[in-house]
Amino acid sequence: MPPGKEKRDMEILKLEHLAWDLPDGAGIIKDIDLSLESGKLIVVTGPNGGGKTTLAKLIAGIETPSSGRLFFEGEEITGLDVSERAKRGIAYAFQQPVRFKGLTVRDLLELASGRALDDAHLCDLLGKVGLCANEYVDRELNASLSGGESKRIEIASVLARRAKLSIFDEPEAGIDLWSFARLVETFQEVRRQKAGTLLIISHQERILSIADEIVVIADGVVRSAGPREELLPTLLADEKSPRCPLGKESARI
Amino acid sequence: MNKITESLLRVVSGFGGTFKGAYNVREDGECAGRQSSENIKIESKKEGPGLVIHVRPGTKGETVYIPACVTHGGVDDLVYNDFYIGEDADVLVVAGCGVHNDESTEARHNGIHRFFLEKGARVLYREKHIGTGTGKGAKRIDPVTDITMAENSYLEMDTVQISGVDSTMRRTTATLAAGARLVVRERLMTTGTEWARSDFDVTLEGEDSGVDLISRSVARGRSRQEFNSCLRGKNRCSGHSECDAILAESGSVVASPSLEAAHVDAALIHEAAIGKIAGEQILKLRTLGLTREEAEERIIQGFLK
Ligand SMILES: Nc1ncnc2c1ncn2[C@@H]1O[C@H](COP(=O)(O)OP(=O)(O)OP(=O)(O)O)[C@@H](O)[C@H]1O
Ligand SMILES: [Mg+2]
């Protein structure tokens, strides 16, 4: 990547020495440096408890870093709260969807897209996650929705934002094979249409295999990062052995 | 009717200049307009203040409006309205009460409504309460609803009090015969130093009778609420009550649900939850670009919808 201004234009997110500690001082995210290129599909993977969700929350502004800085489109956002970051163009699909009494699927999608949506739009949005709008738009976002249904609605709410940077936290969790296939297509569509940068946290080979870049996070640090072609073969080889993925390449993508 | 009544009616009974169907408007304890229809007769009670409303058997799709307004302090309005709903009738009853007070003395409406549903009758009962005005005098609404349901009748009560009532004591009792079904949806919001109490007492007498009681409330400011419910199953029946309250600022809610079953096949359930708005709900809406305050308002609005 060429140095200077051009590079900054292509860089949507930059993390500098980002760290997040528990109150007892234990480091969960440790001095992470990361730079994401605009328009790419980046997959973050790594062992359970490695710090992926925490990192996503730090980017979305849900957690405040203990130290370090974040830059979005070249501007520092470290001091911005969740709402402000959302307005700048960062969207985050929760790993565990939130339930609401009194909000319907339609309400959520309209809030997400910032305007009233007609049936065709709702159908289009829910179709992206393999749901049929007619059956769901008036459903309340309460415990009556199945796990996979609420997960897919959560993902649709982030797609509805058409954000510059969309973060999906294990979108595959609890989703059936057919909806998952549809979702993978949707992610590829977003990339094809240059409709935003995708940061997808995933353990799924199917998702890893569509990545432009892969970042492996373990024990709060970036273990390796680079183009899919380079990283995926080693990850898959590692998978065969019962160890965690290792490797000490630079964290720069 | 006066201007205040008119604007209260727009809020509590969807008044748009006229009422379509049978109606009676009560203003400061007096009748400010009445009309019966062919199938719905509204008459004054012989003994004491109030109305007797007869809905002819088999009447379908008609509406009767019986709103009441108090428009100034110093009024203590007490009224007894009796509804007789004939066999297989299917009607909408729009009650609703507005109390306006710009003075320093209390303004109060106390409506005692009795419903007698014949076999197979169906009623949708809508009741909306509001208080307005800037006077120091309290605005009080104390409704009593007493429901007697014959075999296979159905009543759905939609009751809402959103703002401005300083003190309310609501009491609803019902007795259900075989196959009768009662659905109550209550929405309550109190702010400032308001106080609200809601009591439900439902007796499931007949076989396969059922009640579903859902109360959602929000207590803001330093307001206080009390919720008491008692479902009594005396036969094979089903009863479900749910009290869900959101606390904001220094609001307080006391919920005392009770269930009494006197039959092995009486299936009675109660659910109660009181707490502030879940932090993750606010967070989710903030990730969609809403501010914290906007998120809270939206969650409360949806909850009370
Ligand atoms: N608030 C917290 N208090 C205590 N420990 C926490 C807290 N938040 C995160 N952790 C710990 O930090 C570590 C990283 O958690 P995180 O959720 O980021 O992992 P993850 O990589 O997303 O894992 P998974 O693949 O299972 O989703 C875990 O060990 C977790 O238990
Ligand atoms: Mg996680």
Describe the structure.
The complex is a heterodimer of chains A (253) and B (305). Chain A has 253 residues and is of the alpha/beta class. Chain A has helices at residues 5-10, 52-60, 82-88, 105-113, 119-127, 133-136, 147-159, 177-192, 205-208, 228-240; strands at residues 11-21, 27-37, 41-45, 67-72, 75-76, 90-93, 165-169, 197-201, 213-218, 221-227. Chain B is mainly beta and 305 residues long. Chain B contains 3 helices and 22 strands. Chain B has helices at 3-13, 279-287, 292-303; strands spanning 22-27, 30-35, 40-44, 50-55, 60-65, 68-70, 75-85, 90-94, 97-100, 107-117, 122-132, 139-141, 144-149, 154-163, 167-176, 181-190, 195-204, 209-219, 224-233, 237-247, 252-261, 266-275. In chain B, the strands form 2 sheets. In chain B, strands 3, 4, 7, 10, 12, 13, 15, 17, 19 and 21 form a 10-stranded mixed β-sheet that branches. A 6-stranded parallel beta barrel of chain B has the order 1-5-8-11-9-6. The mean pLDDT of chain B is 95. The interface between A and B is medium-sized, with 22 and 22 residues. The structure holds adenosine-5'-triphosphate and magnesium ion (MG). Magnesium ion (MG) binds at residues 52-53, 95, 169 of chain A.
What does the largest sheet of chain B look like? Answer: 10 strands, mixed
What is the CATH topology classification name of chain A?
Answer: Rossmann fold
The succession of helices and strands of chain A, N to C, reads: HEEEHEEHEHHHHEHEHEEH
In angstroms, what is the radius of gyration of chain A? 18 Å
Structural class of chain B, please? mainly beta
Give a nutshell description of this structure.
With 253 residues, chain A is of the alpha/beta class.
Topology:
The complex is a heterodimer of chains A (253) and B (305).
Chain A: H1 5-10, E1 11-21, E2 27-37, E3 41-45, H2 52-60, E4 67-72, E5 75-76, H3 82-88, E6 90-93, H4 105-113, H5 119-127, H6 133-136, H7 147-159, E7 165-169, H8 177-192, E8 197-201, H9 205-208, E9 213-218, E10 221-227, H10 228-240
Parallel strand pairs in A: 3-8, 3-9, 6-7, 7-8
Antiparallel strand pairs in A: 1-2, 1-4, 4-5, 9-10
Chain B: H1 3-13, E1 22-27, E2 30-35, E3 40-44, E4 50-55, E5 60-65, E6 68-70, E7 75-85, E8 90-94, E9 97-100, E10 107-117, E11 122-132, E12 139-141, E13 144-149, E14 154-163, E15 167-176, E16 181-190, E17 195-204, E18 209-219, E19 224-233, E20 237-247, E21 252-261, E22 266-275, H2 279-287, H3 292-303
Parallel strand pairs in B: 1-5, 1-6, 4-7, 5-8, 6-9, 7-10, 8-11, 9-11, 10-12, 10-13, 11-14, 12-15, 13-15, 14-16, 15-17, 16-18, 17-19, 18-20, 19-21, 20-22
Antiparallel strand pairs in B: 1-2, 3-4
Helix pairs in contact in B: 2-3
Bound molecules: adenosine-5'-triphosphate and magnesium ion (MG).
Magnesium ion binds next to helix 2 of chain A.
